[in-house]
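To: structure subgroup
Subject: Chain for Friday's discussion

All,

I'm putting the inputs and outputs inline so they're searchable in the archive.
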Amino acid sequence: MNKFIEKIYECQQKNKSLLCVGLDPNMDKINALGVDLSTWLKNIVDAVANKVCAFKPQIAHFSAMSAEQELLDIISYIHNNHPDVPVILDAKRGDIGTTAQKYAQEAFDKYKADAVTVNPYLGHDSLQPFLDYADKGIIALCKTSNAGSNEFQNLILENGLSLFQQVAQNAATKWNKNNNVYWWLVQLILKNWQKFEQ
């Protein structure tokens, strides 16, 4: 089994949780608490580490305020102090050629994330550099929560599937040669989407 898949599954069982906590710092709110970013991040992580199945730092929230070092530090802190809890880098990267390779290196070599969110709407080749990291997890966004996602993701294809369902199916089968696409999410999307729409 893929290392990330195994790690998140074991964390789900251990903590009896499907909760993934996003780390999306807002410095206006953090400053109002009278703490610095690193302290705030560590306090959040330590407070909930035994109640979650993953942490998900959002890369844009860090890079927009030139806090890449703090992002590196909190991922390292999680790995060192809560090694059973996987880190999903929320990057939603998707590009072509060498740019996709650099994004994969950023997520896995630089930040040492256990998994990364990716945008599959540029096609399989834009994800291949991520998929090549066989021991890492790939979470392909298929159906997003913003209202505007319905403009394209809900389009019905000739085979009767909506576009987002086709993307999920491709991620689970055609693209999953290293078994590093997070199957639980893909199965949820393919089999249970109607429950979430109700």
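Points worth raising on Friday:
The first helix runs from residue 3 to 15.
The CA atoms of residues 28 and 34 lie 10 Å apart.

D.
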